[in-house]
Specification:
191 residues; alpha/beta; Purple Acid Phosphatase, chain A, domain 2; five-stranded mixed β-sheet; four-stranded mixed β-sheet; 9 strands; 21% helix; globular
C-alpha cells in the first residue's frame, strides 16, 4: 500500500492530436500519447494520493469525454479549472487554491495571470506551455512562478515535496546569486 502523497499536474490534453506537434510531444499519434500519459499518471499516483490538477484534461471534441478520462486516473483530484474543463461529475472546479507549507506560500492556478493580485508567494501554474523553455521556463525566480505544464515535468505528475525543494533552491539562488555557479541543478530541471 502506498503512503499518501500530494502531487500537482496539468495540461494532459488527452485525446487532442494537435498538441503533439504544437508542443513537440514525443509521441507518434494520439493513441500512443493517451496510453503513455495514463500509464505515467497511474504509475506515479496511488489511489489515496491527492493531485492538484491545474486544468485541461482533454481538448476539443474529446473535452466532452472528460469524465471518460477521469475514470482512468488514480488519486483524489482537486480541480483548478482550465480553459477546456467540462464535466457534470466534478462537484467543484476552483479558480485557484492557496497552500502554506512551512514558511512558503503557494498559489495553484491554471493561468498565472489569474492569481490574486496581492499574492506574494510562489505561483504554480499551467497554461504557459513549456515547449519553449526560454519564453516559459520551468522556474522563473524573478516572477516567482513554476510552470508545471506536462512538458516541464517529464509527462507525469510532480510530487509537491519536490516543488518545495526546487523553491528552496530557487530562493537561495535569487537571494544570493553566487550559488548559481556551484549548486547542482535538481534533476527535474535537466532536459
Amino acid at each position: 500500500m502506498c503512503q499518501s502523497k500530494v502531487y500537482v499536474a496539468a495540461d494532459l490534453y488527452l485525446g487532442y492530436t494537435g498538441i503533439i506537434r504544437r508542443n513537440n510531444r514525443p509521441f507518434m499519434d494520439v493513441e500512443e500519447m493517451n496510453k503513455a500519459l495514463l500509464k505515467n499518471w497511474n504509475d506515479t499516483v496511488c489511489f489515496n494520493d491527492i493531485v492538484y490538477f491545474l486544468g485541461d484534461i482533454s481538448y476539443g471534441k474529446s473535452a466532452e469525454d472528460m469524465d471518460y478520462w477521469l475514470k482512468r486516473l488514480s488519486g483524489n483530484i482537486v480541480f483548478i479549472k482550465g480553459d477546456q474543463d467540462l464535466s457534470e461529475n466534478i462537484e467543484f472546479l476552483l479558480d485557484y487554491v492557496t497552500v502554506d507549507i512551512g514558511n512558503k506560500h503557494f498559489c495553484l492556478v491554471y493561468n498565472p495571470t489569474d492569481a490574486p493580485e496581492d499574492f506574494d508567494g510562489w505561483i504554480i501554474h499551467a497554461h504557459s506551455y513549456s515547449h519553449d523553455f526560454e519564453k516559459q521556463p520551468f522556474v522563473d525566480c524573478e516572477r516567482k512562478t513554476i510552470n508545471i505544464s506536462l512538458e516541464a515535468t517529464d509527462y507525469r505528475p510532480i510530487e509537491f515535496a519536490e516543488i518545495e525543494g526546487i523553491v528552496s533552491w530557487a530562493d537561495s539562488i535569487y537571494s544570493e546569486p553566487d550559488y548559481l555557479a556551484t549548486y547542482e541543478v535538481p534533476a527535474i530541471m535537466q532536459n
